[in-house]
Write a structure and sequence with these properties.
Elements: H1 15-20, H2 22-30, H3 43-55, H4 61-69, H5 72-78, H6 83-96, H7 105-119, H8 125-131, H9 145-154, H10 156-171, H11 174-184, H12 186-199, H13 209-226, H14 229-242, H15 244-249, H16 252-255, H17 261-274, H18 288-309, H19 314-318, H20 321-324, H21 327-334, H22 339-348, H23 365-376, H24 382-387, H25 395-398, H26 427-457, E1 459-461, E2 467-469, E3 476-487, E4 500-507, H27 512-519, E5 526-532, H28 548-552, E6 554-565, E7 587-594, H29 596-609, E8 620-623, H30 631-643, H31 650-657, E9 676-678, H32 686-692, E10 697-700, E11 712-715, H33 727-735, E12 741-746, H34 769-779, E13 782-787, H35 794-808, E14 814-818, H36 821-831, E15 841-843, H37 859-884, H38 894-916, H39 926-931, H40 952-981, H41 985-996, E16 999-1003, H42 1004-1017, E17 1023-1026, H43 1034-1038, E18 1055-1060, H44 1072-1076, H45 1084-1091, E19 1096-1097, E20 1100-1101, H46 1106-1109, E21 1120-1121, H47 1123-1127, H48 1129-1132, E22 1142-1146, E23 1156-1159, E24 1162-1164, H49 1166-1182, E25 1189-1193, H50 1196-1209, E26 1221-1224, E27 1233-1239, H51 1252-1259, E28 1262-1270, H52 1272-1275, ...
Parallel strand pairs: 10-12, 13-18, 13-19, 14-16, 14-17, 15-16, 17-18, 20-21, 22-28, 25-26, 25-27, 27-28
Antiparallel strand pairs: 1-2, 3-4, 3-8, 4-7, 5-6, 5-8, 6-7, 9-11, 11-12, 23-24, 29-30
């Protein structure tokens, strides 16, 4: 089980390498678009490139990339698309050519890959037109005659089409007909060619790997053809008729263990898809009953043939189906028959051509027997297979390179992995592929954790043959004792136990904080039980470059789930509010749940094969970080979904699977489109409304301009989906005046009461016309997709949609789903600023504590709010009762309050109305409204006078507003009545979730984890809004659609709004193979964009200066700037002390070192880190607030190094403080700050910044200033980054500063400064300059205060004296610490010593805002700062484990 040698990384070519290549030189001569004088094109050039560059390099990926960069394919096919059919026909011809002829088998393998890509790119019109000719009904020409007749008989309507095809063929000229016949038979002939190659593979003699790779690529092509409905519909019958699977399973390649391992895995995948539970013609998923019927039909047809024609099979023919449909019984009945008889049986079933009389069959008996048996044996259903699958990975899967490849996947080989393409067969197929990939991606992360933890424990062989651990790990502990304590009986119909529990005892002789982490393991946390039997003697060094399993002697890995820790009496300590008991000693026992399916498989293997009992061998238990450890719950959710009847709305079903009209779910095509919508506070004025609908004729229902004020109701022209068929008629209809007319009706929000807080909160954002279109689409039923580039107000649009749905459809419930807690909190903070009653808001999950508000929107926070609000409202009822002079205790409960309202309040109101309402023709008296008003005393605490006395209508509206205020009190109390009846907090929280809350928010992870609980509660919702949709995994986007049970077989979902940006970072997939080969990084949002679902593209950004926006707006169609970006002073003013608003600063090696890698993928660059911190300190000394500066980097290692340097240099210095954030670009997506300092770290290879999406995120975080530290020669050489780096390198590459210009400045951006500009050449110079600047500032300040103290007392005002004394104290304290914190330029200790290793807590402290840590540029922060403990560089480092903890914090000293 030793892991193979790690494949080499493929390094992408740089710009200079590209320019030096032969292909690029030819491109510049013949076809490059930027070359004006081109030579006439010569066809020999193509042959030369193919022979010299491609074939000679054996189709190396590097050469193919160069060909792509040279833009030769657009030259050929975009300008002359008619060339492609000719090219494609030659590809088909070459794929079928004899391998000893013009094309080698390796070339034909590459052609198979090309064909595979073509079949997976059916959304491209050019490709689809050619591919369709290969996979349409006429391809059935390749079937044998009897089989063709049988298939046409099964589906009568196909016979009509077949006859029509034959008629059309007769009309074709012979040459065209021959060409058509070749295309139709292409796949049949390709299969035959493959079978001949497969048969040429010997059993034991050496075999060329070209043959093996050809076979693997061919099976991959077959899988992809079977996994797409448009290709499968006709091809599946051809594949079945060729008996390809039988040939493969009997081949020598399957029996070759090493060479055939991947081929066998691919074959299993192909077998799965050939028997997939779908009707090939209709595309409908088949139920278990329908699959059973198909199986029974096959067996009974075989029995009928046996009964009629083969007397030796009478016993088989007369047996019941269940008795004869297993492999053993079929072999028993058919094994004794001769080859000729078996052939005749197969021909009766139309599986083989009829055997001529007196002739022997040419097929082997083994083949004929396998053909009949494999076709008729009973298959376990796919859902049964899934239910019997263990959810935890074992050692066999974890280290199988074909299933879980290393991070170095080059893209050259094929893998036994499912792919997430544009289309899926059924929802079951969709869920299954996602299930498998999610499981394997989790397995990859588990493998990394196991390798890290176990290698830290240093397992060695002891002198007596046992195991001794020479190290220790924070996340793993040696097992002292392991006992299985319960194996529960299986459920009826199942063969695995319902529950298996075990006790694991460990000895926690570790530091207190690590002990707390182990004791803090909660119910459902996942751990792994590991068996190691090392063979290396004590003291052997662990080498990360060598295979892991051999070195540590790993034998078994099994997963388990924590139930709880046991107390002294052996009882599980339950999670709850009660304090945990204090346990004595260091021995702790955990009760865990084992996987019942895995346990059953292991026990079966032990009993049947005499294998050892795995569960008696475990000697290590490993835990994982809680945030990374939810994979099992998500897998269970997906499996539960597959076991239930998945009901997605009809209008979404086909789009999710990738079929049909991609715009069918757009609101304009929905049958239930709503004509009139209340836009509430969306528009700020009637002019704003008119500007928001360019090209429309706006008709306002009132003429008086004074009345044309928001809010507005808008009636849109609604066209029904059904109409004229002619396209021209549709166009005419669209252009009519009526279709462009909007009827706008201003309306007045009814008065809500006399108190100031009764006034509704209003939106203040002037939305653009594209934002208004997004809001309109979100309010209508259907699917709305909003693409929001950086700074275009995605969150504001989302919040306005939520608010408008809330007011238009008060009975509906909206679910908000985001990728991160932070995005959810940003959304919630903006929702609270709008006119939404907070009792209708609910936040689920563990992120609510991060909300920057005093209010608690979690479940229990809402319960407490309801209880507190109930008491407040009952107090109001008591006050009302007293004001009305009603005796009794009406405010005792919600119920008594209800009666009080009904009998006392309503009666008085109705009497009042009868007195003051307009009677007949008499003019109403204004004074009566106030005179008869019954609630004067109650509203005595409102701003007086309540009634203005100007007009009857105005006063009457005020009176009704007062009554609405009173009525709302009793309405809320009626809603809160349930909290009186439900006694427990849990029941109350469930009631709020299911009944009370109208806007429920959660992360996609929480939705995946808690789906079962939510469905069980009866959770219901009508609308879903997803923020950051392009960052959410495909399956985690899909699960929130199914958090409720269907109503009468239908989903009640009405709207699905997805807001995201597929040009920014995709979902995080750590393994390159899953990312690229399986396309797992493609979010559902991105797939919908690729399929062609209509999107609303926001096109105006208001975040950054226009000059900063130019660094990334080239990635978008037409991203412009909002007017305020040019007009507001903060955008037009220059950055004080800095000549440029953005600059790329070149950083050379520091002390001979550039990037370093103390741990794998843990990149650091000390020179850049010191330079970044020096610039930060310089800005703070000029007066920039520290919280307006964030430091970003592209690698975790650099993040920790910068935090260490900040702790050492300035973290506790009151004159400087800490930046707002020090984090990675990936973690900072969705956030922004005024000034960004960015370190790109790498000096040898560009690394993952080559992904343009990461570059877009990095460039778009800054509002006013962006300063990038990098090795310029490396990054400007990167082809993908050229559009941004060409702008960056146009400015000087040395930092230009203006030290005498204070913050803030009056200089305009782009103006030459009046102060002297200083050019900083390198990092040491900057560090030296900042040190001198700091010392000068301290001395000047100190001297100033000394002078003040010497003045006569009369000359100093009292307040100033106090302030001076405080400031003097601070300055003195600053001076005492400055020597530690700001080392002199000669002190290189920080550069040469190890910066302190940050534990999780330190990291968290460093990433908090200055307002939390007390750090800012304000000197008064010293008292808080002086008490903040920090670790400084040069301190005694912690033990090895702390130096390299699980979160990859590390020593920068190793950068030396």
């Amino acid at each position: 089980m030793a892991a193979p040698a790690q494949p080499k990384k493929i390094v992408a070519p740089t710009v200079s390498q590209i320019n030096a290549e032969f292909v690029t030189q030819l491109a510049c001569k013949y076809w490059a678009p930027h070359i004006k004088k081109k030579s006439p094109f010569d066809i020999k050039v193509i042959e030369e490139i193919y022979e010299k560059e491609i074939v000679k390099s054996r189709f190396a990926i590097r050469k193919i990339m160069l060909l792509e960069f040279s833009q030769i394919t657009p030259k050929i096919f975009k300008k002359k698309p008619d060339h492609f059919p000719f090219f494609f026909k030659h590809i088909l011809k070459a794929a079928l050519a004899e391998t000893d002829g013009e094309f080698s088998l390796h070339e034909q393998t590459v052609l198979l890959l090309f064909l595979d890509h073509c079949f997976n790119s059916l959304e491209v019109d050019l490709i689809r037109s050619q591919v369709q000719q290969l996979i349409s009904l006429p391809m059935w020409m390749g079937l044998q005659a009897a089989r063709l007749e049988l298939e046409l008989k099964k589906t009568p309507k196909l016979r009509k089409f077949w006859n029509l095809i034959k008629k059309n063929d007769e009309k074709m000229d012979p040459e065209a007909r021959e060409q058509a016949y070749q295309e139709r038979r292409f796949l049949s002939q390709l299969i035959q060619k493959f079978i001949s190659v497969l048969k040429s593979v010997p059993l034991s003699e050496p075999v060329t790997m070209d043959k093996v790779h050809y076979c693997e690529r061919f099976i991959e092509l077959m899988i992809d053809l079977e996994a797409l409905l448009p290709t499968r519909r006709w091809f599946n019958t051809i594949l079945d008729d060729s008996h390809l699977l039988v040939h493969c399973y009997l081949s020598n390649l399957v029996r070759r263990e090493e060479d055939g391992h991947l081929f066998s895995q691919l074959l299993d995948m192909l077998k799965f898809y050939t028997g997939f539970e779908i009707n090939d013609q209709t595309g409908n998923a088949l139920t278990e009953n329908e699959m059973t019927t198909i199986h029974y039909d096959r067996i009974t047809s075989l029995q009928r043939a046996a009964f009629a024609h083969f007397t030796e099979l009478y016993d088989f023919a007369l047996s019941n189906v269940a008795e004869v449909d297993t492999r053993e019984s079929l072999v028993k009945f058919f094994g004794p028959l001769s080859s000729n008889t078996l052939h005749q049986v197969a021909s009766y079933l139309c599986l083989l051509p009829t055997l001529p009389k007196n002739e022997d069959t040419t097929f082997d008996k083994e083949f004929l027997l396998e053909l009949l048996v494999s076709r008729h044996e009973r298959r376990i259903s796919q859902i049964q297979q899934l239910n019997q699958m263990p959810l935890y990975p074992t050692e066999k899967i974890i280290w199988d390179e074909n299933i879980v490849p290393t991070e170095y996947y080059s893209g050259e080989g094929c893998l036994a992995l499912p792919k997430l393409n544009l289309q899926f067969l059924t929802l079951h197929d969709y869920l299954l592929r996602n299930f498998n990939l999610f499981r394997l991606e989790s397995t990859y992360e588990i493998r990394q954790d196991i390798e890290d933890s176990v290698s830290r424990m240093k397992p060695w062989q002891s002198e007596y043959g046992g195991v001794v651990f020479g190290g220790w790990a924070r996340m793993a502990q040696p097992i002292v004792a392991f006992t299985v304590v319960e194996v529960a009986k299986p459920n009826i119909g199942e063969n695995w136990p319902t529950r298996v529990r075990a006790d694991v005892t460990i000895n926690l002789n570790v530091r207190d904080h690590i002990k707390d982490e182990w004791e803090g393991l909660r119910k459902h946390d996942v751990c792994f039980l590991i068996t190691v039997r090392p063979t290396k003697p004590y003291g052997t060094k662990f080498d990360r470059r060598r295979p892991f399993i051999e070195q540590v002697g790993l034998v078994y890995v099994r997963g388990c789930e924590i139930q709880g820790m046991l107390d002294d009496k052996g009882r599980v300590i339950e999670d709850g509010p009660e304090p945990r008991p204090n346990l004595r000693g260091e021995s702790r026992t955990f009760r865990v749940f084992l996987d019942p399916n895995q346990y059953q498989q292991d026990m079966t293997n032990t009993i049947q094969n005499g294998a050892e009992d795995v569960y008696e061998t475990f000697n290590i238990i490993m835990r994982r970080k809680p945030k990374e450890n939810n994979f099992k719950a998500v897998l269970e959710t997906i499996r539960n979904l597959m076991n239930t009847d998945c009901v997605v709305p009809d209008w979404l079903h086909d789009i999710i699977l990738g079929y049909g009209d991609p715009s069918s779910a757009h609101y304009s095509k929905m049958p239930n489109q709503i004509a009139t919508l209340d836009f509430n506070d969306t528009f700020l004025s009637i002019e704003h409304l008119k500007a928001s609908f360019p090209g429309h004729n706006v008709k306002v229902t009132v003429e008086d301009p004074a009345l044309q004020i928001p809010p507005f109701r808008i009636t849109f022209p609604v066209r029904s989906g059904k109409g004229k068929k002619r396209k021209d008629a549709d166009v005419e209809d669209e252009d009519t005046e009526e279709a462009k007319t909007l009827i706008v009706e201003p309306h007045v929000i009814p008065n809500r009461g006399p108190y100031p807080y009764n006034q509704p909160k209003r939106n203040t954002i002037q939305f653009t016309h594209t934002q208004i279109e997004a809001i309109r689409a979100g309010m209508q039923p259907g699917l709305t997709m909003v693409v929001g580039p950086p700074g275009t107000g995605k969150t504001d649009v989302a919040v306005q949609i939520i608010s408008n749905i809330y007011h238009n459809f008060p009975e509906q419930r909206t679910l908000i789903v985001t990728h991160s807690n932070q995005a959810l909190n940003q959304l919630f903070e903006k929702i609270m600023a709008l006119d939404i009653d907070e009792r209708h808001l609910l936040r689920l999950g563990h992120g609510e504590e991060e909300l920057e508000t005093e209010k608690d929107f979690s479940r229990y926070g809402r319960v407490n709010y309801v209880l507190a609000r109930r008491i407040e409202l009952l107090e109001e009822v008591k006050r009302l009762q007293k004001s009305l002079g009603v005796p009794g205790d009406a405010s005792y409960t919600c119920e008594t309050a209800g009666y009080f309202f009904l009998y006392q309040v309503m009666s008085r109101w109705e009497e009042y109305i009868s007195k003051v309402k307009n009677k007949g023709s008499a003019l109403p008296d204004v004074t009566e409204v106030s005179t008869f008003f019954p609630f004067h005393e109650y509203f005595a605490n409102a701003p007086q006078p309540i009634f203005k006395g100007r007009s009857y209508e105005e006063d009457m509206e005020i009176a009704e507003g007062c009554f609405r205020h009173i009525k709302k009190i009793f309405t809320q109390l009626e809603e809160f009545r349930a909290s009186e009846l439900l006694r427990s907090g849990l029941d109350r929280s469930k009631y709020l979730l299911v009944k009370e809350a109208k806007i429920i928010a959660m992360t996609c992870t929480h939705a995946a984890l808690k789906r079962h609980d939510l469905v069980k509660l009866g959770f219901k919702y009508d609308n879903i809004l997803m923020e950051e949709a392009a960052q959410i995994l495909e399956i985690e986007t899909f699960i929130p659609l199914l958090l409720q049970n269907p109503q009468d077989g239908f989903s009640r979902l009405k709207r699905w709004i997805m807001i995201g940006d597929h040009h920014q970072l995709p979902p995080v997939i750590k393994n390159m193979a899953f990312q690229k080969y399986s396309n797992m990084e493609q979010s559902l949002f991105t797939r919908f964009v690729r399929v062609g679902v209509p999107t609303v593209d926001l096109d105006a950004q208001g975040r950054a200066r226009a000059s900063l926006c130019n660094l990334y707006n080239w990635r978008y169609k037409n991203l412009g700037n909002l007017p305020h970006v040019q007009l507001l002073p903060e955008f037009s003013t220059a950055n004080a002390g800095l000549l440029y608003d953005f600059q790329l600063i070149n950083v050379e090696d520091f002390q001979g070192v550039g990037e370093s890698e103390p741990n794998p993928y843990f990149y650091q660059n000390l020179g850049e880190a010191e330079y970044v911190v020096a610039l930060f300190m310089y800005m703070c000394l000029l007066g920039y607030p520290a919280d307006r500066i964030s430091i970003l980097t592209t690698y975790n290692g650099q993040k920790h190094l910068i935090r260490d340097i900040i702790n050492r240099r300035c973290g506790n210095n009151p004159l400087i403080g800490r930046p707002n954030k020090v984090t990675t670009v990936d973690r900072f997506q969705g956030q922004q700050n005024d000034y960004i300092l960015l370190s790109l770290v790498r000096t040898r290879a560009v690394g993952h910044l080559r992904d343009v999406r990461r570059l877009v995120v990095a460039m778009s975080r800054a509002r006013l200033g962006l300063y990038i530290f990098a090795r310029v020669s490396l990054f400007q050489n990167c082809f993908e980054l050229t559009p941004a780096f060409s702008q960056l390198t146009a400015r000087p590459l040395h930092l230009h500063i203006i030290p005498t210009e204070p913050f803030p400045t009056t200089r305009k951006n782009g103006e030459r400064p009046s102060h002297e500009v200083q050019i900083i050449k390198n990092m040491p110079q900057m560090a030296n300059f900042v040190y001198n600047m700091y010392m000068h500032l301290i001395q000047t300040t100190h001297h100033y205060h000394q002078t003040l103290l010497q003045l006569p007392p009369a000359m100093v005002e009292e307040g100033e004296e106090v302030q001076n004394q405080e400031t003097e104290f601070e300055t003195e304290e600053a001076m005492t610490v400055q020597a530690d914190i700001i080392p002199s330029p000669t002190d290189t200790s920080c550069s040469q010593e190890t910066p302190a290793f940050q534990t999780d807590t330190t990291s968290n402290q460093t990433e908090t805002t200055p307002s939390e840590t007390g750090a800012s540029s304000n000197p008064k922060a010293v008292s808080a700062l002086s008490e903040t403990p920090t670790t400084v560089a040069g301190a005694v480092p912690a033990p090895a484990e702390a130096n390299m903890p699980q979160d990859a914090t590390s020593a920068s000293a190793e950068t030396k």
